Structures are given as structure tokens and as C-alpha cells.
Amino acid sequence: MDKIIYLDNAATTKTAPEVVEAMIPYFTEFYGNPSSIYSFSAENKEVIACQREKIANAIHANAEEIYFTAGGSEADNWAIKATVEAYEKKGKHIITTKIEHHAVLHTCEYLEKKGYEVTYLDVDENGIVKLEELKKAIRKDTILISIMFANNEIGSIQPVQEIGKIAHEQGILFHTDAVQAFGHLPIDVEKCHIDMLSASGHKLNGPKGIGFLYIRKGVKIRSFIHGGAQERKRRAGTENVPGIVGFGKAVELAYTSLEERIAKEIELRDYLIEQIEKRIPYCHLNGDRQKRLPNNVNFSFQFVEGESLLIMLDMKGICASSGSACTSGSLDPSHVLLAIGLPHEIAHGSLRLTLSEETTKEELDYVVSSLEEIVIKLRKMSPLYEDFIRKQEKR
């Protein structure tokens, strides 16, 4: 197959042509600063307000509860750091999980150095939070629960509505990192009792460098970036008008076709899982088989080193990953896979394939054939695999 097969949509997505088209005029024609008072610039305020409304509607929020950021990591940092600053008189205890994105984990580690206490919850073998463990972890001084909507590596979807209910029953704020879920799953911040939600544009065919933080009305968290009065005095800095317009267009496209796209991606996802399990022995599906993102497939292959697997797939024109793009330079196995109980040697042989609505069955057939061939080749070079086969033959 001559063309590139892109199966790393959890890392980033292709910007949709409609999104690019919507953005271009705001680079070249309508380039005014929305904070300026003359009409040429002031009109961009209305444009921003329109996108804010679109995004709010997508999660059943109010427009004034949406604050634009430079992406998901900033939104996560803002939600956590500003919450502890605003509520530190109530307590200094935070609850999160061991499988969060590093934007949350590293922020919590930073706060621990500042004297805050963090409980990192275990998850089950499918990467799902145990609600009873969450309840046990709550203390009188707990001020924030931050648990992701769906995991970026193994795709497992958390019981967000139940988590939010537990948090609110105890008078605790609930933040969810929905970077992987927004635009891919239906989200209702009211039904799920969510106080803060982080999302990013480039995960749903929008531009990079734009995201938002939903902050429920009444939540008393403070500014994260100080300076001007933008974003209702909560996030200083000249608005990224082209990015906001592109984000709004991407949200419009994503939620107009959401149900149809989910159905198509689930069909392709399950087909890919079935073919891999049928054709490649000694592999393990990571994450919950049903409660997972529609486009996420994550496998560990015994007796295979993940980096070699990725390089050989790349040589065949297949773009994939072994986990989060934010940790691609690390030699350590995925913290998510270790948290669900995989031993180091198996966690090192992991592969994440994330589909898009443009992915075809023909492409997946090529991927499975290539993967089968590569795994066989790599296992032939593994002395551990040879020993394993000899032991199996003696039985």
C-alpha cells in the first residue's frame, strides 16, 4: 500500500478542510484584536461569542461557563492549581488516579512539593476506577477530585456520572480531563455533575493550540494567566481568533455526525480487535472491551519490544504509537499499563492504534497482515520466545 495509514488519532488528528477554510479569513481579512473598541475589531467579539455558544451547547453548558485556553494541558493545570489556591482554607487534599494524563499527574506532583496531599487511586485490570475505593479515599479536607473521562492510552471510559455524584454528595469539586472524549462521546456536564472539564481542539479535527476549560457557574476558582481582562478577567492574553473559529467549526462538524461516526468507528474497532486476536497469538487487549472509546485499540504482544514494532510499522507506512505522544521520548513502560497490572516486559510490547472516520476496512486488513508479519519476525529474534515455545512443546 503506497499511502500512509494514519492510526494515531489519539495523538492528534488531521485538521478538517472545512475548519481550515473557516479559519483563513481571520488570518488575512478579519485580523483585528477583539479587545479594540473600533467596529472592525469589535466584530470579532461576536464571532468568539458564537463559537463559545456552539461549544457550550455540545456539553449542555452555558456559554459564559466556557473559557478558551491554549489546549488541554493548560486547562488541566488551570483547573487543579486554581482550585487548590481558592479552596486551601477548606483543605489540602486532592484525589486523582494512577492512569491520568501527565498534565494532571505532574501538576499533582508539583502541588505535593507545595504541601498538598494527593491520593492516587488504583484502577481495575480494565483501567476503570473502583467507586468504593474512591469513597474510602474521601476525607474531610478533600477539596478536589480529578478523574479523566476516558483514558488516552487504553481508551477505557470512566463512570463519570457516578464519580460526579459522589463528589457532589460530599461537597467536593469534580474536574474531568475530557481531552480524548470531547467530540468522540456525548457529554452532559449537568447529568454528570461536572464542575470543570478540559478539552482540546486538535483531538477532533480542529487546530492545535486551542482548547477550553468549562467552569461551572459558582465555582470560585481564580485567574490562571494574569494580565488583561480577556475571558471575563479569568484568562489574560489576546484571543486566538482563528483558533477559536476553527475549534467552533470542528465542534459543529463533530457533533452533527456524532452518532453515525461512533457507530462506524465501533464497527471498525471491533473488527480490528477480532482480526488481531484471531491471527496473532500471545497478545492481550488492554482496556475494557465495551466501555472504551469508539476508535481506540490497544494491545500488548508478548516477546516483542514496542519500539521495534513501531519502527517496522513505520517502514510499511503505518503510523501508530505505544502510548501517549507526550511520553514518546521515554524508555519507561507506560504508567497506565503498569497501573492495570501488566508486568514490565509485557507493557514494553504495547501498541496503540486509534482510528478515524476515514479509516477503511481495507487499510485495517493491511495493518493486521503487516503486524502479523512483524510480530513473527521480532519473536524469531527473541531468546525468551524460543524458551517459551520449547516449554510449551514439552507439555
Report on this model:
This protein is of the alpha/beta class and 395 residues long. It contains 15 helices and twelve strands. It has helices at 17-23, 25-28, 39-58, 72-87, 102-113, 131-137, 160-169, 230-233, 241-256, 258-279, 306-315, 335-339, 344-347, 361-380, 383-394, and strands spanning 5-6, 66-69, 93-97, 117-121, 142-146, 173-177, 196-200, 211-215, 283-285, 296-301, 318-319, 350-354. The strands form three sheets. The protein has a seven-stranded mixed β-sheet with strand order 2-8-7-6-5-3-4, sandwiched between helices. Strands 9-10-12 form a three-stranded antiparallel β-sheet. Strands 1-11 form a two-stranded parallel ribbon. Strand 5 (142-146), helix 7 and strand 6 (173-177) form a beta-alpha-beta unit. Helix 3 runs parallel beside helix 9 (241-256), helix 4 (72-87) packs parallel to helix 5 (102-113) and helix 10 packs parallel to helix 14. The longest helix is centred in the C-terminal third of the chain and has 22 residues, at 258-279. The radius of gyration is 22 Å and the shape is globular. The protein starts with a strand and ends with a helix.
SSE layout and pairing:
Elements: E1 5-6, H1 17-23, H2 25-28, H3 39-58, E2 66-69, H4 72-87, E3 93-97, H5 102-113, E4 117-121, H6 131-137, E5 142-146, H7 160-169, E6 173-177, E7 196-200, E8 211-215, H8 230-233, H9 241-256, H10 258-279, E9 283-285, E10 296-301, H11 306-315, E11 318-319, H12 335-339, H13 344-347, E12 350-354, H14 361-380, H15 383-394
Helix pairs in contact: 1-9, 3-9, 4-5, 10-14, 11-14
